[in-house]
């Protein structure tokens, strides 16, 4: 898969990545990551709190060692958890993640959640890592407008990415608009709303029109809005289908129909209300 977008620092990021949320550290995950790369995924997303970086790294390194890809063809993301948001703790968490992944560098490192005003010191650590070339790009996850605005007031490096929950039930138009104006790439997690949208009547009607799956329609809805997305599947056939979205275009009417499903419904916590 060669379709990429260019981040605000010039780094190229694949528009579809392979997500590993809620998958335990296991040989099955290592095999799934390897299969994903074999299938064509070049972006792999994990996080410190997932507890699966070691298996993700094993799958990545197996693919590299066997010559499926070179390391520089891959785009690897992980995230620092809220237990580690002081400057020193963030640096230590980064090094621990790098060791578990068995990698020399990361392509993208994110602050996983803003918490309650704990992220400013952590961002300074990310800036230091970036300036030392230990990571190619830095960004945030689950940041609302107020968090982004505060970050802008204290940062010397603009975040390259804001990874947020985003799907037709939660379109996040205000956050998207802010990020577009400020050249911050939006990346959607839980694009299928934990599978709840795959049986939606509106989405299934559109999928029948294009002879595509509901998942493919949702992925395409993201891509046509310039949004990166990270669907998750442990099934090889579904992995392939989730990449097979570049041979059709949703009509403007279909985009509107999907947008109209929005009711600001989250499958995860609200960053403004979830204190941890």
Summarize the structure in short.
With 276 residues, the chain is α/β, with parallel strands linked by helices. The chain has helices spanning 27-39, 53-65, 87-101, 119-131, 145-154, 173-181, 201-210, 214-224, 236-243, 252-259, and strands spanning 4-6, 12-14, 18-19, 43-45, 75-80, 106-111, 135-141, 161-165, 185-189, 228-229.
List the helices and strands and how they pair.
Elements: E1 4-6, E2 12-14, E3 18-19, H1 27-39, E4 43-45, H2 53-65, E5 75-80, H3 87-101, E6 106-111, H4 119-131, E7 135-141, H5 145-154, E8 161-165, H6 173-181, E9 185-189, H7 201-210, H8 214-224, E10 228-229, H9 236-243, H10 252-259
Helix pairs in contact: 1-2, 2-3, 3-4, 7-8
CATH architecture: Alpha-Beta Barrel
Please write the CATH class name: Alpha Beta
The DSSP helix count reads 10
Number of domains: 1
CATH homology superfamily: NADP-dependent oxidoreductase domain
Q: What general outline do the C-alpha atoms trace?
A: globular
How many β strands by DSSP?
Answer: 10
Strand line-up of the largest beta sheet: 3-4-5-6-7-8-9-10
Structural class: alpha/beta
Q: Could you give the order of the helices and strands?
A: EEEHEHEHEHEHEHEHHEHH
Average pLDDT figure: 96
Largest sheet: 8 strands, parallel
Low-confidence stretches: none
Distance from first to last alpha carbon: 37 Å
CATH fold naming? TIM Barrel
Task: Report the sheet-strand fraction.
Answer: 15-25%
The portion of residues assigned to helices is 25-40%
Q: How many whole angstroms does the radius of gyration measure?
A: 18 Å
